[in-house]
Amino acid sequence: MGQAGWKGFFQSAFDYKTEKYVIAKNKKVGLLYRLLQLTILLYLVLWVFVIKKGYQDTDTSLQSAVITKVKGVAYTNTSELGEHLWDVADYVIPPQGDNVFFVITNLIVTANQRQSTCAEREGIPDGMCSQDDDCRAGEPVRAGNGVKTGHCLRVGNSTEGTCEIFAWCPVETQSRPKKPLLRDAEDFTIFIKNYIRFPKFDFSKANILETKNKDFLKSCRFGPNNHYCPIFRLGSVVQWAGSSFQDIALEGGVIGIHIEWDCNLDRAASECHPHYSFNRLDNKHAKSISSGYNFRFARYYRDSAGVEFRNLMKAYGIRIDVIVNGKAGKFSIIPTIINVGSGVALMGAGAFFCDLVLIYIIKKREFYRDKKYEEVRGRGHVARETEAEAEAMEREQREEGLPEEHGQEEQPQAPPEQRPEGERRRVWEAHPFRQDGYPKECKGECAATEDTTDSGDVARAVGGEQIQR
């Protein structure tokens, strides 16, 4: 590559190429384009930046700790338990105060159980028998209460009975509760303490009001206008979850308390507030044999002889799940540029769609397509087309019987001095060097000058001098 080639190469590196735009004076397509631009602009401003805050970097890896406490007392007087005062140590399980805890609202008590032999409860298929061979010794009763001893116990002259088992006797009764035992549990209070941290921004906060007043938590209650007093009345929580306390206290249920932290860290930290919502997590509309929430536990004692016995309790109640979610956002240039670039790309997609409408859908699409796309061909292609057009014209002339003016072979021409006077004058007057007949410089002298070559060289006398072209 020579010096001129390298110079052109380096100069072309600083060239700038831009697009050529065709302005289509079509009101319908123009209106469609402006509507698309307006829609994309509204989407970018309102949805991306205002609602979704697309200009912020976000942190959803929330670190959370939940501590719970329940307070309240209830008094009962039943045949199984007698007079009994229930405090938090009796009805809250587990007592550690985790984010999941259980409040007892109803009980079925089987008192004074001791390990001995007794009849299996009726209604258990594997415990039914008609003879001793149906009760194989040492075999546990499936879905039952003990281990078979090998005897079938029948009442009176009945042909069927139940297997004798070694278990905690008497076995549990299967009666379902008719009314809640701890009706006063509706007024129990739940204290939920929640600490959160967003590690990406090193931001921490709690759901308790920062105050030096030690009596604040003793008198306040949670409400729509008091989100920094996380003390909830149990009956109100059930009501906010869309249930009746008396119904859920009878057979139990699961309530979710959701704490949502949505923090805009472009503002002051005092504007980052917790938002609470409540819902019932189990299906309250499904009335089945396993509806509600219950479990069993026992309390063990020893009599004066040192023999162990227990009181078995089937507890029904309200399980509370405290669920914490959250995210924090703060301005960052990277997501801002990404979302703006996405909006610009959508603008380009709108222009592409309008191009499709303009050149493929509307009635004048062929006209606009010809204006938008310019067809450029090489010299060889143009020469071939010209030759093809000449041949086509020659064929048409033959068919019409007209004299051929194109495509004829050139006949050798006579020297200029042998041509007739009129032909010499026509050749001279038709030469492209002339403008109107004779050149202006001739002034009558050009009649003596003739075309002496066939290659287009022309000689003329101007003031006694010869000029060749």
From TrEMBL:
Membrane topology, from the record: Multi-pass membrane protein
InterPro entries, per database record: P2X5_purnocptor, P2X_extracellular_dom_sf, P2X_purnocptor, P2X_receptor, P2X_RECEPTOR_CS
TM ranges: 31-50, 340-362
Region Disordered, residue ranges: 378-469
Pfam family, one: P2X_receptor
Cysteine disulfide links: C118-C169, C129-C152, C135-C163, C220-C229, C263-C272
Subcellular location: Cell membrane; Membrane
Record keywords: ATP-binding, Cell membrane, Disulfide bond, Glycoprotein, Ion channel, Ion transport, Ligand-gated ion channel, Membrane, Nucleotide-binding, Receptor, Transmembrane, Transmembrane helix, Transport
Top-level taxon of origin: Eukaryota
GO annotation, biological process: calcium ion transmembrane transport; response to ATP
Protein name in the entry: P2X purinoceptor
Taxonomic lineage: Eukaryota, Metazoa, Chordata, Craniata, Vertebrata
